[in-house]
Design goal:
This protein has two domains: 25-79; 87-162, PH-domain like. The chain is built from five helices and seven strands, in the order E-H-H-E-E-E-E-H-E-E-H-H. By secondary structure, it is α+β, with helices and mostly antiparallel strands.
Length: 186
């Protein structure tokens, strides 16, 4: 889903619009599998009980599974889906929240530095943590940013708008060293 154009200033364009990495959903998916399996097992066990206890246990199992699904599956999914990390030509925008929305806008001209970190698991999944240092005291930390190195490079290039960063010569690369001439034997 694209970031709403009515939220942008005139002339401002979206460069990157991302949700957090889908690895945030691994635990909810695991919780879904466990909850459904436990619900099926509970329903089978409730069928072996004498009436009216079979209905009571079946209702209790259903309520517990429903609560687990709401709190451990649906809530994290909605949190993931409603979180946006947006880089525009003018600012970095972060929005999150389902019922009550929270957000921060960091003007590009206020960003002092940008850095990233990613451990082994993050490297496997292709995500990482982005740190943006601005006029605030502590750097702002954004976890689970997909393709964090590319996001870092885009912000860095935008901050240091050097023409040579964007349009490098195809021949550019390592400078060639001159080969020393062979020594003549004595």
């Amino acid at each position: 889903m694209a970031y709403p154009k009515d939220q942008l200033s005139s002339g401002e364009q979206v460069i990157i619009n991302r949700h957090p990495h889908y690895k945030m959903l691994f635990l909810p998916i695991f919780a879904f599998i466990i909850a459904v399996a436990a619900g099926i097992w509970g329903a089978v066990m409730a069928g072996n009980l004498q009436p009216p206890w079979d209905d009571v246990v079946l209702i209790a199992v259903g309520v517990i599974v429903l609560l687990v699904l709401l709190l451990r599956v649906i809530k994290p999914f909605l949190r993931w889906r409603s979180t946006h990390f947006v880089v525009t030509t003018d600012r970095v925008i972060v929005r999150h929240g389902v019922i009550s929305r929270k957000g921060i806008d960091i003007p590009m001209r206020r960003i002092n530095s940008v850095r990233f970190e990613h451990g082994l698991l993050d490297r496997i999944f292709g995500c990482g943590t982005l740190f943006i240092e601005s006029a605030s005291e502590d750097p702002l930390r954004y976890d689970d940013i997909p393709a964090v190195e590319k996001v870092h490079a885009v912000i860095y290039r935008h901050l240091n708008d050097e023409p040579r960063d964007d349009h490098a010569d195809e021949d550019a690369g390592e400078p060639e060293l001159e080969e020393p001439e062979p020594r003549q034997g004595r």
